[in-house]
Amino acid sequence: MRYAAGWRSRVALGVPAGLALLLLVVPLVALLLRADWARLPSDLATPTVLPALRLSLTTTSVTAVLCLALGTPLAWFLARSEHRATSWVRALLTVPLVLPPVVGGVALLMTWGRNGVVGQHLTPFGIQIPFTTVAVVLAETFVAMPYYVLAVEGAVRGLDPRLESVARTLGATDLRYLRTVGIPLVLPGIASGLALAWARALGEFGATITFAGNFAGRTQTLPLLVYVELERDPQVAISISIMLLAVSVLVLGVLRGRWLR
């Protein structure tokens, strides 16, 4: 009787669990099955793919640098601050994670556009940000920064606060503590945060196409090229998608050891 009840429980849990796994895995397998592997090298070497690849690598690298330079101090502040406003800052930081990317693009346009809150003050100086490569970087940073900050904040929270107290007792300034003790200890968190932010920036579509447009050689990144090639030559779109899938799997492989720990 007890065995039958246990079997029914396993079935009741196993069936929806299996369906959930199929919903996630089958589309990826279908992508691999529909690929023309003989065409893959030539598809990725076409004149349209190489500029998009170059632009994607450039903009995502700049995005990673911005996340590192601006996100690290913010993550440290969130992890160490006990002010009541900190929770509100953290809540605002997570908004881009749940915000539809297109809405993020509209928000960026209302900020940096010709008549935007900030853009209207740049227009008299001849500075136009929308539909430029700079707009691509801003869109990618907008969606990728939260991933980096939250990853680094978690790593900073894992530090023993007594280390900072001892450093202060010995006369170390905040900057010296960060440079010699704090940053080296959270380097794994910084590395994983950068990998997540870079991968998220590489896959960005909605905010980019809304704020930066889809201009070959200037704002057309790999995801935008997939969208175009899906109508022009679906096999090229599949080849690019497989390349992006491989990059995603590679990032997951790099982070796997950290997540298991």
Automatic annotation (TrEMBL):
InterPro entries hit by this protein: MetI-like (IPR000515), MetI-like_sf (IPR035906), ModB_ABC (IPR011867), NifC_ABC_porter (IPR006469), Sulph_transpt2 (IPR005667)
Short name of any one Pfam family annotated for the protein: BPD_transp_1
Source domain of life: Bacteria
Keywords attached to this entry: Cell membrane, Membrane, Molybdenum, Sulfate transport, Transmembrane, Transmembrane helix, Transport
Keyword Transmembrane helix: yes
Compartment(s) where it occurs, according to its Swiss-Prot or TrEMBL record: Cell membrane; Membrane
Spans traversing the lipid bilayer: 12-33, 53-79, 91-113, 133-156, 177-199, 236-255
Bilayer topology: Multi-pass membrane protein
Primary localisation category: membrane
Domain ABC transmembrane type-1: 53-255
Subunit composition and interactions: The complex is composed of two ATP-binding proteins (CysA), two transmembrane proteins (CysT and CysW) and a solute-binding protein (CysP).
Function in brief: Part of the binding-protein-dependent transport system for molybdenum; probably responsible for the translocation of the substrate across the membrane. Part of the ABC transporter complex CysAWTP (TC 3.A.1.6.1) involved in sulfate/thiosulfate import. Probably responsible for the translocation of the substrate across the membrane.
Annotated family: Belongs to the binding-protein-dependent transport system permease family. CysTW subfamily.
Protein's name according to its UniProt entry: Molybdenum transport system permease
Organism: Terrabacter carboxydivorans
